[in-house]
Structure formats: C-alpha cells, structure tokens
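To the wet lab folks,

You asked to see what we're planning to order before we commit. Fair enough. Below is the target structure as tokens, and below that is the sequence we designed to fit it. If anything looks off to you, flag it before the synthesis order goes out.
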C-alpha cells in the first residue's frame, strides 16, 4: 500500500487498512502435528476460544474410525486449525496474484476456521439421523453463526452475512473452502492418513498449492503440478475405500445411528430438531458432543440393562457390531445390481431393526471442471495426457449388514 500523507490520496483503502489492522494484532502460535506452527490473529483466537469452537475438541474427526484404526482419535478442532492454516497459505498466494482483495483474504481465513462448527456428535453417524428431519451440518452451522458469533464478527468489521454466503455459495472464494480441491480436503486427507497410519493420504501440498488456480466453475492446474493433482485424487479415492467407507467403520456408524434413534425414544426424549435450536439459544449446545452421546449410552444402559436397546448399547461398546453379508463395489458405470433383490429377500426372514442396507454414490472428481495450463494456453483435461483421465469419477458402494446373531442365517438366505 503506497500512501502519501500529504497527497490527495491520504486515506488508505479499506483493503490496506484491514491487512494492516490484522498484521499489527498480537498473534498466537499453536503447534500442529501436521503443519507445524500455526499462527492465529486476534479475531481467530477470539473465535477459537468460544465454547462452540472448543466443542470441536470433543468431536472425533473420523467418527468411529478408531474401531478399526486405534490412532484415529484426532478431532475436528485440530482439523479446523489445519484448514485455517491452508486457507491462509492459499489466500496469501491469491492476494499476491491480485486474484482477491485483503478483505476477501480475511473472509476466506475466518470461513475456513469455522467451517465445521455445525458438525454433529460422531459427525456423519448422527448427522444422518437428522438429515431425514431437514437438519444437516450446513443448516446447523448457519443457526450457530446467527447467534452471538455474528456479533463478534461485526465487532471486528467483518460482515457475518458475507461469511455465510462464502460458506454456502458457489463463488471462486467458496471453492477454496468447499470445492474440487479445497483446503478442507487437503487437510483431512493428510491428517486422517497420519492418525490412521494409512499412507494413502499423502499428498504434495506445496506443489499443489503453488500450481493450482481457482475458478467459479472449477480449477486450473499448471502442467508441472499435474502429478500432484493426480496424487490428490488418487489419495481421495483410496482413503474413501480404506477409511471413510471401510466396511467395519461404516457398519458401526449405521449401528450407532440405529441405537441413537432408540435412545431418543426411550431415554433422551428432548433431542428433536426444535430442541437443538433451543439448545443453541440457551447456550447449552457446545456440550452436545461425542462425550455426551457416550454419557447417554451409559445412562440408558444403567437404567434398564435387560432391555433390547441396552443389549444393542452393550454390543456397540463391546465392539460386537453388525457384519457385512452382501457387498457390491463399482466405479462410474452402473452394473447390474442385486442389491434390492438381496435386501428384500433378507427382510422377509430377518427383523427390520437387525438389517442395515446401505447404498451411496460417492463423487471423486468432475473431469469437466479441470483445465490444464500448458505453454501459455489452457486446455480441457481430455486434451492432456494424464492419469486423471483414468481415475473414476464415482465410487458406488452397496452393502447389506445384519446383526451378528443373524449372520449365518443371512448367508444361507443369500
């Protein structure tokens, strides 16, 4: 920022003031096991100290992955800090390139820091119960942001509506947080790989960040960074298979969701959508976390240890969850499936609450949204020789789980 105090342009721009303001504020350093030293400015410290953000210390990043990978006990808290770090790194690169303003850099960093505020206890395991009732993590995050957090942002001169628009929108800035190759995925692939011990999530972050550009309708990658991008998408595919949709981990998530629904019917009767909204208003929401769920399981079991629900709770805690009896894995093209036929056949012989059918089509990449910059021109992915053209765009998983006591009968029926 050039500023002549005696000249006609004696008033610096808003962008310059914002950068200067945050640069002069005291910084706090946190050591992260993935990225090393992470520096937080004054506003970020203020947000991180809020009970709603501290709650993320008590929500595991990979839900029930610890049932298979004992080291996977890392949290949404550390992931949020890592996402902030990467947003700061990419944001400053975009700022130097003139692609964004100083105000937009601040918006990107803050949005990255708080992007997971709406995560449910045990993440997707419990979220799937509420999605059927119209409440997902994005809707929950919006409710939290509309509380006193919006006042804090406004006090620092940040329009909270712009933060919400960035988190929920489709702009170039949104794609940095939630897009094709975003800071959220960059962090969790490496972090989850580190804590599970699975080496499939290792990616060359520096090369990827240095060679990528963001657009509203996708990304562009310099040809010298194409291998790093290939590695990113291969890591994503492999981590989905080895961790996020691992057959045992997924089985326990389905099991916990079933237990949770019974928990609300029999033991914790005030946890419908309106009750959660009321918790946010009363300020008790920050204590609805993984530990709360465990506490509810213990209370429900102790109250009536001989009930069917208590037996399910005991099986969950003793790691005696449901088993896969049928599985189909495919990529891109739909193959002939017997999933519905098998599910219907099993449903005629096995109790409904002991049967857990699962079907999901998981997006891995959208090749139409990737362009390659080579020799001062930009071309479609189809025109460049790269492994990306061979990576499947979708992973399709169909499984049927049954409670352990019905495994032999189910296999005979199939």
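Sequence we intend to order:
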């Amino acid at each position: 920022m050039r500023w002549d105090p005696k000249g006609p342009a004696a008033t610096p721009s808003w962008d310059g003031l914002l950068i200067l303001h945050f640069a002069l504020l005291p910084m706090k350093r946190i050591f992260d096991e993935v990225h090393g030293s992470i520096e937080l400015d004054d506003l970020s410290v203020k947000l991180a100290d809020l009970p709603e953000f501290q709650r993320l210390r008590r929500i595991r990043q990979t839900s029930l992955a610890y049932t298979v990978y004992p080291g996977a006990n890392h949290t949404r808290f550390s992931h949020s800090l890592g996402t902030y770090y990467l947003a700061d790194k990419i944001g400053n690169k975009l700022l130097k390139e003139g692609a964004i303003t100083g105000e937009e850099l601040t918006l990107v960093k803050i949005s990255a820091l708080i992007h997971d505020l709406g995560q449910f206890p045990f993440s997707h395991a419990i979220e799937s119960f509420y999605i059927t009732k119209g409440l997902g993590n994005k809707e929950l995050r919006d409710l939290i942001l509309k509380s006193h957090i919006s006042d804090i942002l406004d006090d620092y001169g940040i329009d909270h509506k712009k933060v919400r628009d960035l988190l929920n929108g489709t702009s170039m800035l949104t794609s940095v947080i939630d897009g094709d190759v975003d800071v959220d995925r960059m962090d969790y692939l490496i972090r989850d790989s580190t804590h599970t011990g699975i080496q499939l999530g290792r990616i060359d972050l520096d090369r990827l960040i240095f060679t990528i550009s963001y657009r509203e309708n996708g990304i562009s990658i310099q040809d010298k960074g194409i291998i790093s991008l290939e590695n990113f998408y291969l890591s994503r595919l492999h981590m989905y298979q080895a961790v996020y949709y691992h057959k045992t981990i997924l089985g326990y998530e389905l099991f916990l969701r079933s237990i949770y629904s019974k928990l609300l019917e029999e033991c914790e009767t005030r946890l419908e959508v309106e009750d959660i909204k009321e918790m946010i208003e009363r300020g008790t929401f920050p204590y609805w976390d993984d530990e709360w769920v465990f506490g509810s399981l213990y209370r429900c079991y102790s109250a009536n240890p001989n009930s069917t629900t208590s037996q399910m709770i005991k099986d969950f805690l003793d790691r005696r969850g449901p088993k896969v009896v049928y599985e189909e894995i495919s990529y891109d093209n739909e193959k002939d499936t017997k999933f519905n036929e098998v599910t219907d056949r099993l449903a005629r012989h096995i109790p409904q609450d002991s049967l857990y059918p699962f079907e999901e089509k998981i997006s891995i990449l959208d090749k139409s949204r990737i362009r390659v910059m080579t020799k001062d021109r930009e071309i479609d992915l189809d025109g460049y020789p790269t492994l990306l053209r061979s990576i499947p765009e979708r992973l399709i998983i169909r499984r049927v789980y049954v409670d352990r006591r019905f495994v032999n009968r189910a296999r005979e029926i199939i």
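Structural context that might help your review: The CA atoms of residues 148 and 281 lie 9 Å apart. The first helix runs from residue 14 to 24.

Thanks,
Computational group
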